[in-house]
Amino acid sequence: MSKVPQQLDASPEALEITEWKVQRRQQLREEFLKLKTDPFKHASGASGSVFDPAILRFQSIGVNYYDYFKPTGKMVLRGIGLIVVPMFGFAYLLKRSRGKIEASYRRGEVSYRDRNSKFV
To answer: What membrane topology does the annotation report for this chain (predicted)?
Structure first.
């Protein structure tokens, strides 16, 4: 009996793929639980976590990222967009708001006693 809910708008191929994914997930879960709860592994002194080659590859990418990094135009634009644009945007907003306040000070609209930055 299938654990996949029957969908009316799904094609037979999509249902077959979903069924295969459910079965594969169940097999991997059973294998993980078998390895994790093996009492003889702890008796031999080789305890610890279950070895997963995908996790090892992911961690090694983090260590060796800069060895294999290739600068591209997309990466340059990403760096500019995430670093340079926010800095200049924030500076522009600060300058504009500070300019409005300074202009009101110079026109005499705010008395010296009511100013926020008297000693700067």
So the answer is: Single-pass membrane protein
